[in-house]
Amino acid sequence: MIGYFARKLGTYVLAFFLGATIDWGIPRLMPGNPVQIYVAKFQLQSPGAWEALNKLFTKAFGLNVPVWKQYLNFWNGVIHWNFGVSYTQFPEPVSHVIFSAVPYTLALLVPAITLSYVLGNRVGAMAARRKALDNTILPVGYFFQAMPYAWLALAMAFFLGAYYRWFPIGGAYAQGMVPNASWSFVWSLISHWFLPFMTVFLVSFGGWAIGMRNLVIYELETDYSRYLRSLGASERLVRRYAYRNAVLPQLSGLALQLGVVIGGNIVTEVVFNYPGLGNLIFKAISGEDYFLLQGIFLFIIVGVCIANFLIDIIYVLVDPRTRLSMQGAQA
Amino acid sequence: MTKRTRAVRLGTAFTAAALVAPLINMASSASAGAQATYPRNETLYTSGTAYNPPNNFNPNDLGSLYTGTAGLLYEPLFLYDPIHNKYIPWLAKSGGWQGTNYVIHVRSGVQWVASPSGAVKGALTGADVAFSINLAKNNAADPWNANVSTVQGVSVSGDTVTVHFSKTPAYTSWQDFLWNAPILPASTWSKLSTTDQLTTANTSPVATGPMLLASTTNTQACFSVNPHWWGTAQLGLKFRFKYLCDEENSTNNQELSQLLATNIDWSNNFLPGISALVNGALGGNSGYGIKTYYPTKPYMLSANTVWLDLNTTKAPMNNANFRQAVAHAINTQQIESSVYAGTVQVASPVGLLPSLKSYVNNSVQSKYGFKYSPALAKQFLKKSGYKGQKLTLEVPNGWTDWMAGIDVIAQDLNAIGIHVTPTYPQYATRESDLINGTYDMALDNNAGIDATPWSYFQRIYNLPILKQQSATLNWARYTDKTAWSLVQQAATVPLSNTAKLKSIYSQLEQRFLQSLPVIPLWYNGAWFQGQTKYWTNYPSSTSPTDQYTPIMWHGWLGAMTTIYALANLKPA
Question: Which of B86, B112, B428, B449 is surrounded by the fewest CB atoms within 10 Å?
Fold first, then answer.
């Protein structure tokens, strides 16, 4: 078992190293020079002053050293949790900028992913055995699953936000509020959170429900299910076995889906102007904010690696065959 | 406990934890002394100026400073009123030339006040003014360095500051310093290193302005009225709101919905179709209570000139006949009506903003100026030696009005036989193209509002042309040595010598119209929308007294008459 996890861990460390290196490289391949853009905002009318300012800010951003040194500085920074200074929010350190946005993204993603997974699987499994549910949930599931995040977000914002005005549609809490520990602030947080959460939740929910419904139907038709039935096992018992088998591909799917959900979360946050990492990525790209982009993606890479590792562990727990095979390997 | 209930409980716990996380995080970052909620009827909400969260209040970091840093916190010596073309003494009580010396009498009764506490840190003195001038002079990276290039020294006697210039002072640049550069507190600012003076975030500013920085969040900065502000006692300016909160910009549709939902009172965003909401063209629905500076066309004051830059280092753009052909082929009137629905004005051929019309020589303009005429354009094109090259015309992606504008331009140019494709690269790519001269044609609006035509012509003719035209000068890369020496000459003429200045500018206008290094298209508006649900009495062209600049953008709030406009607002 230790060998299994060590192997997995090794893979993730390698993935992290490669991911972080690409993460460092890609912004530098983007067209345009960010310091040039930054200094252009001064609208200077003197080339001499431009030269002096350009030098000052190139140094302030640590870009006055050769590229290989920038790469080493990057890893040194990663170890010390220092990702440099943001261009677009100068002189704020990137780590501060990211940490002020992370809670909002977690508040959207963690419940949206877990609830859509749990509920989607349950509802999908139920749909597999009830005709009425199958005829209603399935089309609705397809509808949401095929929906681009941005489109669903806009539709939600239009109908529930602008037209019926049930929910506010911009920011994380009411403007004019300064975050404080009061019920009115918490309520404001929840009401602003609801629509972006529902957007991410519904699209994922549809996907899980459809997948589970198909898998359970498949499992109910397999030989072991027929054999169980022929032994006289109750339909409930057969379904429980079918469910436990069907959940395994879904679990692998969850690991694969994480990246897609994070991508969808970016557009959702932009539509609702929700101040999480997605919104920050959008701003960092349009502002050519190297360090901020690097920092956010690094954060996401770490997050996805950890989440995948956790799923690996859960997989071992829910699938006795993995455990058995590992024991077999040991013996 | 069954597995199902365990899963559900786990999910619920996750949800709760994830929801509470931002609360804990944010509560800890709320600054002391800030309001938990700013009362709606005591707060003016503004937007349309900031594109990043409020975390920089350094008046010298023009790349990152948040709205209000100049104007609400730091103040200049004078203000400039572009509507009535006059200067208003601000931190200077008066100022004027005595030979090649400029003598400033510093206003008394002005206090340096710390934010957010409101503690008084001493009075403004002549030494602070001298310090600010020397700061700009002694650091080449200071954004005001070029403005004080001919300053030789500064002497202080009590509240009188004498600035000594070289034999030929750069009058125009110095004048721009007077109404743009912030005066800084020598006592706190001198403690910073020269780098920090330009790069510190300055989140606890000590300033003289009408407001104090009260609190910041990820998306807004709130200011409270400064009880020690000199303007209340000396000019009778009193704000009827207690707080001013400026919201960070999001997308155009978000901004429009916030304005219509009366969450924003004062918007400086470009909002497509706003004229329809103002004049009730939408089926007579004028119930939105939105005011603009002009009640009818053009709705907005003019803020800057949009030019069509032609890269004159490349054929066929290097041919004057080709540039004339382009100028004659574009139907800017159509852009004004179809793209902007009347919220901009078509530029004059010279392109100087309406506030500088006294400098325009009308006879030169009518003799050499271009107008929309496809027939004439074709004649010029024939003479231009254009060989059917495929050209591109670029604007930054996401600037929707400009994107629609160049679609019209490309159609017009293709109609006379010039093959032009509109392209929409990212802002940074487009900026880099223009700086490095790797483009064919592009739009730019570097030529912003100013008190004289000097910076307008400097931006067109500045020489020498560098490999990277990084300062926003001469992006067309056009070489006209005579014109450039005329611009340099204009810089050294006292602003009081209007006859001489007009003669120089008139020569420049003629050269400009004959060669068209850039083509003036339209005047971008000084976008302003006032929501009347909570606050009224916004500046208006129809008011005999309340004609002030309703703009919070950097370069306006701390330099023009926006403070007067704010002080005139009344509760609805």
Answer: B86
